Amino acid sequence: MKQDLQTREPFEEVLKSKIEISKIEYIRDILASMSSVVCILNVSNQIVFLNDTLLKKYNLDLEEHVLGVRPGELFNCVNAQNDTGGCGTTEKCEYCGAKAAFDRAWKERKRVVHECKIVSKKEDEIFQLDLEVTATPIAFDKEYLIVSINDITDQKRKVLLERIFFHDIMNIAGSLSGVLGLMPMLEEDEKQEYLDIANSLTEQIVDEIRGQQQMIKAESGELIPNFQSIEIESLLRKLADQIRCHSVSNERGIDLINEASVERIYSDHTLLIRVLINMVKNAMEAIPKGDRIVLKAFDIRDGIRFSVHNNTFIPHEIQMQIFQRSYSTKGDNRGVGTYSMKLLGEKYLKGNVGFTSTEEEGTTFFIDLPVSRINGSA
């Protein structure tokens, strides 16, 4: 079935479909008995019927708030808040699991299940939702899709955070064990160097534990930033020293450039380090051995930008999905780094996190912190 999502059925037609479906008693009863969100879509993917689960949870009125909208708009998806036609009409929508389920169900006339990641924004709050979407074609007087939406956010988040945490801790602990195992075989004049490495690895383990605690609190909304005055030059040097002791920097270098017109910035030191170290680690992982990345601080019109640049290019398809939790090109044990940059950098540091990537210029991730975070006003 060929769809044109740039157009929608008039509200009168949507209301007519809702009335017709409401007359089918067994459908109404079945949908009412389900604990997940279940809706019925017309050929334009507009909701013409919805069970009570979401209506009761958010105190919505079916006709006033829901009829005629699309699922992404119902969940406040950031990609649905556009002027091109709403849910399903942007380039990023082509990589959406929900749209993939709808498209395939319409085309193949069979039940389809897909997982879907949605970045939801309501007022100033941003949430990452993981949903399991089931779309099943059905025909009454017209053709429709019955769509079941299960929120699996907590389940996916818990599994992912634990998997990454233990993966990283085991890597660092293995390095620490290797260093300590070499100690008895070293000459006296070599031991101090290896003790310094062991100390750095121990600090990394503590940082990983702290980082895990921060992410759990950040996602539950319990994290309280501690804003303080931070010296920019010292911050950059600490980041460089920290990454040089990490396995990802093996035969890879880092250059520091500080062009900021102010010496200090007002932010949460721990959270800012967390955002920037994720940018640095991602950049290191992207480059071949022998290459270097650039960590830079410089003025922008409304504040200071911290950026991390490498010479590699991110393919377009991957660019469309960056900042989604659990999306990664590095395997099952990754996917929180870019997501945590966005969550911590914007929700808690009140900055702007983004990136650019071209074949000619390479890739740069950045966080912009506004003037209010420089002059000391929180």
Describe this structure in words.
This protein is α+β, with helices and mostly antiparallel strands and 378 residues long. The chain has three domains: 11-151, 2-Layer Sandwich (Beta-Lactamase); 154-223; 225-378, Histidine kinase-like ATPase, C-terminal domain (Heat Shock Protein 90, 2-Layer Sandwich), CATH 3.30.565.10. The protein is built from twelve helices and twelve strands. It has a five-stranded antiparallel beta sheet with strand order 2-1-5-4-3. Strands 7-9-10-12-11 form a five-stranded mixed beta sheet. Helix 7 (153-182) runs antiparallel to helix 8 (188-220), helix 9 (232-244) crosses helix 10 (269-286) and helix 10 runs antiparallel to helix 12. Mean pLDDT is 83; it is low at 331-335.
Layout of helices and strands, plus pairs?
Blueprint lengths: L10 H12 L2 H8 L4 E5 L5 E4 L1 H7 L3 H5 L4 H4 L22 H12 L3 E11 L2 E15 L3 E9 L1 H30 L5 H33 L6 E5 H13 L8 E7 L4 E5 H18 L5 E9 L2 E8 L5 H4 L17 H12 L3 E7 L3 E9 L8
Parallel strand pairs: 7-9
Antiparallel strand pairs: 1-2, 1-5, 3-4, 4-5, 6-8, 9-10, 10-12, 11-12
Helix pairs in contact: 7-8, 9-10, 10-12
Entry summary:
By secondary structure, the protein is an alpha+beta fold. The protein has helices at 11-22, 25-32, 52-58, 62-66, 71-74, 97-108, 153-182, 188-220, 232-244, 269-286, 316-319, 337-348; strands spanning 37-41, 47-50, 112-122, 125-139, 143-151, 227-231, 253-259, 264-268, 292-300, 303-310, 352-358, 362-370.
